[in-house]
Amino acid sequence: MEFTHLSQLTRDPKWYDAVRRIVDVFDQQQNQTQLPGMWPVVVNAQKANLTRENSFGLGAMSDSLYEYFPKMHALLGGLDSVYEKLYRGAMAAAAQHVLWRPMTPNNADILISGDVRMRTPSVSELDPQGQHLVCFAGGMFALGSRLFDIPAHMDIAHKLVDGCTWT
Prior knowledge:
Blueprint: H1 2-10, H2 14-29, E1 55-57, H3 63-75, H4 82-97, E2 99-100, E3 112-113, E4 115-120, E5 123-127, H5 137-148, H6 151-166
Antiparallel strand pairs: 1-4, 2-3, 4-5
Helix pairs in contact: 1-2, 3-4, 3-5, 5-6
């Protein structure tokens, strides 16, 4: 996002071009990972292979990737549809596999974002933890809800914010 804005400010496309080449790799491999829609926490950037690892989440080491999809869409005025595509695919997978509802004394209707390890292509194992670094996700889902007209994401956003407040 910073490099894109730097290109906007300097009118030098080289910064945006560098970012766009990386985004193209994420786009090409989004549905080839062990959890289609999301990318592993650890990737091999040198070989441009984002598919080998089996650990997924929205927290530490992943947070900025997902957070920037709706923000980049907004920064570019919606002119590049790839950011909406990446957001929709990733958040569909996250909502299904990564978000979880904890047991609370008052049975609060909240969500927390955990980590998932894919054991096989069809078997996932949730690590039901909550990290402070993932508390951005409520705002990200709210922004995605508004930018991409996904009303269900606003409900998720509220539950995630309540989950971070509760924890």
